[in-house]
């Protein structure tokens, strides 16, 4: 069932790897930018050093003042230091060659022009003036070489900056596109899974009902979901076994009786299997709900309004499916196993049921009247609790919005049939007579899913609980005026307790 989620998570992993690769590439580009800036700073310093030493040398030649020799000497020292730093981290072999070339040109200028002019100035201004023009072109050559180096370094810096910016843009685009696509795929997978499970579970339920009704050749559809298909195969196997047992009934009366016992046993196995299967289906359903609610909490408002709506639809469908499975479990529990019958005080039982429904009573504004003298009967406490809980709960649920809800619980004894008949009466919306038999079927609803809560299994549970007591369940109703549900419990000699006062439970 989790197979649809493989592709989104693989895509998420690819996005993560791409982001890591992009970050590493951007880090390399950043290092290149930093190194290029450092080299460019050193080249500019070399140009400045050339200007400083030239200014100092010419100032001394022109003025003869010894103070101008200090900038000249400082410029030489600074040039050598900056050249050594740049030589330690050249960008390319060509840059190293150009640096050595510039240093050689400067050294040649000093030998042929710079130092000779300084020595000549110490002797005679006229002699120094005749040497000024010598070497000017050599310094221009040094500057030209350094300028070329600076232009090439500028180009490398620009390329590194552009590479870093492009890498960041690419990483951002891949991240945004990948995350959006992953979220959409996760949402699609969750919606598809929820719809698939709901559709095939409904088909499986309908097929199981037909099989239990005797249509043993009914083939359950293939769903593609491993868990549901395995459940369907088990139903098919059990149906095949039941059919084979039924065929053996034609041999003899003894075989008929034995086959009936086997059929009853198979039905109990089917009910037990339905209970176990419904219980196991809750685990994948919790997985679907958890992932969908995780999507809703983490990405609510980050996608468009339609995506938020799809997430809400998925959560609501998961909740309805959970209710359906829980109701199916309740139905299976009611029909399972041998029941122990003891003396049950129905008045105390009804009080407990009303305490459990207290919130619904308050919300509906209902007035619940419990007639005095509800009897003690021989029955099963859990089954009778199901019966009262479902009937009173339905009365609270299907109320009319035009008037205050009135619910009355009472009991009468039919002497001729030796049984107690319990009545749950309301003034709700009522039921048309044509639907009297239909509402007691499993998963039968007279209203849309969004109108009233529930799965349409409560009355089927109630009828099963009453029939296990050997009683009957029926109703009388008029649309728009209300309904009265009656169920009987055989009287095994229990004496009704007198109750002096009628109790009214109000919100």
UniProtKB/TrEMBL annotation:
<dbReference type="InterPro" id="IPR005467">
    <property type="entry name" value="His_kinase_dom"/>
</dbReference>
<dbReference type="Pfam" id="PF05227">
    <property type="entry name" value="CHASE3"/>
</dbReference>
<dbReference type="InterPro" id="IPR036097">
    <property type="entry name" value="HisK_dim/P_sf"/>
</dbReference>
<keyword id="KW-0812">Transmembrane</keyword>
<dbReference type="InterPro" id="IPR003660">
    <property type="entry name" value="HAMP_dom"/>
</dbReference>
<feature type="domain" description="Histidine kinase">
    <location>
        <begin position="276"/>
        <end position="493"/>
    </location>
</feature>
<feature type="transmembrane region" description="Helical">
    <location>
        <begin position="174"/>
        <end position="194"/>
    </location>
</feature>
<keyword id="KW-1133">Transmembrane helix</keyword>
<keyword id="KW-0597">Phosphoprotein</keyword>
<dbReference type="InterPro" id="IPR007891">
    <property type="entry name" value="CHASE3"/>
</dbReference>
<dbReference type="InterPro" id="IPR004358">
    <property type="entry name" value="Sig_transdc_His_kin-like_C"/>
</dbReference>
<keyword id="KW-0418">Kinase</keyword>
<dbReference type="Pfam" id="PF02518">
    <property type="entry name" value="HATPase_c"/>
</dbReference>
<keyword id="KW-0808">Transferase</keyword>
<dbReference type="GO" id="GO:0016301">
    <property type="term" value="F:kinase activity"/>
</dbReference>
<dbReference type="InterPro" id="IPR003594">
    <property type="entry name" value="HATPase_dom"/>
</dbReference>
<dbReference type="Pfam" id="PF00512">
    <property type="entry name" value="HisKA"/>
</dbReference>
<protein>
    <recommendedName>
        <fullName>histidine kinase</fullName>
        <ecNumber>2.7.13.3</ecNumber>
    </recommendedName>
</protein>
<dbReference type="InterPro" id="IPR003661">
    <property type="entry name" value="HisK_dim/P_dom"/>
</dbReference>
<feature type="domain" description="HAMP">
    <location>
        <begin position="195"/>
        <end position="247"/>
    </location>
</feature>
<dbReference type="InterPro" id="IPR036890">
    <property type="entry name" value="HATPase_C_sf"/>
</dbReference>
<keyword id="KW-0472">Membrane</keyword>
<dbReference type="Pfam" id="PF00672">
    <property type="entry name" value="HAMP"/>
</dbReference>
<dbReference type="InterPro" id="IPR052162">
    <property type="entry name" value="Sensor_kinase/Photoreceptor"/>
</dbReference>
């Amino acid at each position: 069932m989790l197979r649809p989620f493989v592709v989104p998570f693989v895509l998420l992993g690819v996005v993560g790897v791409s982001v890591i690769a992009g970050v590493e590439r951007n880090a390399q580009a950043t290092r290149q930018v930093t190194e290029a800036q450092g080299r460019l700073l050193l080249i500019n310093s070399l140009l400045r050093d050339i200007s400083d030493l030239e200014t100092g040398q010419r100032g001394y030649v022109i003025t003869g003042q010894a103070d101008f020799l200090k900038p000249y000497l400082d410029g030489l020292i600074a040039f050598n230091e900056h050249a050594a730093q740049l030589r330690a981290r050249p960008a390319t072999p060509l840059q190293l060659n150009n640096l050595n070339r510039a240093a050689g040109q400067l050294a040649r200028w000093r030998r042929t022009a710079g130092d000779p002019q300084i020595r000549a100035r110490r002797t005679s201004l006229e002699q120094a003036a005749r040497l000024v023009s010598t070497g000017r072109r050599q310094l221009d050559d040094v500057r030209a070489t350094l300028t070329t180096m600076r232009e090439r370094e500028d180009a490398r810096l620009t390329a590194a900056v552009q590479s870093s910016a492009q890498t960041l843009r690419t990483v951002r685009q891949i991240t945004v596109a990948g995350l959006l696509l992953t979220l959409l795929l996760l949402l699609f997978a969750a919606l598809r899974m929820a719809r698939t499970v709901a559709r095939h579970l409904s088909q499986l339920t309908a097929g199981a009902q037909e099989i239990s009704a005797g249509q043993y050749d009914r083939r359950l559809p293939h769903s593609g979901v491993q868990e549901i298909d395995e459940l369907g195969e088990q139903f098919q196997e059990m149906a095949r076994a039941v059919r084979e047992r039924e065929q053996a009934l034609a041999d003899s009366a003894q075989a008929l009786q034995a086959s009936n016992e086997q059929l009853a046993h198979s039905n109990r196995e089917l009910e037990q299997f339905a209970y176990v299967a419904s219980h196991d289906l809750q685990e994948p359903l919790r997985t679907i709900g958890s992932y969908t609610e995780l999507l809703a909490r983490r990405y609510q408002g980050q996608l468009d309004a339609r995506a938020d709506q799809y997430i809400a639809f998925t959560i609501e469908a998961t909740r309805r499916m959970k209710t359906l499975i829980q109701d199916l479990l309740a139905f299976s529990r009611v029909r399972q196993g041998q029941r122990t019958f003891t003396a049950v005080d129905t008045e105390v039982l009804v009080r407990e049921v009303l305490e459990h429904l207290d919130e619904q009573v308050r919300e509906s504004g209902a007035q619940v009247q419990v007639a005095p003298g509800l009897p003690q009967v021989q029955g099963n406490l859990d089954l009778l609790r199901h019966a009262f809980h479902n009937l009173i709960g339905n009365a609270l649920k299907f109320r009319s919005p035009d008037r205050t809800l009135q619910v009355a619980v009472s009991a009468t004894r039919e002497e001729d049939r030796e049984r107690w008949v319990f009545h749950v009466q309301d003034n709700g919306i009522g039921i048309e007579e044509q639907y009297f038999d239909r509402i007691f079927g499993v998963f039968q609803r007279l209203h849309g899913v969004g109108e009233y809560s529930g799965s349409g299994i409560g009355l089927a549970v109630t009828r099963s609980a009453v029939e296990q007591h050997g009683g009957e369940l029926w109703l009388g109703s008029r649309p728009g005026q209300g309904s009265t549900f009656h169920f009987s419990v055989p009287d095994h000699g229990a004496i009704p307790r007198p109750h002096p006062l009628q109790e009214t439970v109000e919100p």
